[in-house]
Amino acid sequence: MKNIVYSYSRKPDVKQVIDLYRNCGLPRPVDDEGRMATIYQNSNLIVTSWHDKN
User: Fold this and answer.
1) In which domain of life is the source organism classified (predicted)?
2) Is 0.90 topped by the overall pTM?
3) Which residue range forms the structural domain that includes residue 46?
4) Number of domain units in the chain
């Protein structure tokens, strides 16, 4: 059984963030990696969820 693990410290790279926004349809400038990197780096809160493979 896979569990969902939430984290404040485990952070995806900018390419993973772009893939997330592309896949979920949220309106962000996903074709501009530099701008996305700036948006991501200036976020005041990042919480992620991951599938635990155990």
Assistant:
1) Bacteria
2) no
3) 3-52
4) 1
34-42 contacts, C-beta under 8 A, 24 or more apart: 40/14
List the pLDDT tens digit at each of the 54 positions of the chain. Answer: 568 999 999 999 999 999 999 999 888 999 999 999 999 999 999 999 988 765
Q: Among the residues of the chain, which ranges form H helices?
A: 14-24, 33-41
Token pair 């952070």 in the structure block, residue:
11
Amino acid at 53: K
Q: For residue 6, give the nearest of 32, 40, 44, 45 by alpha carbon.
A: 45
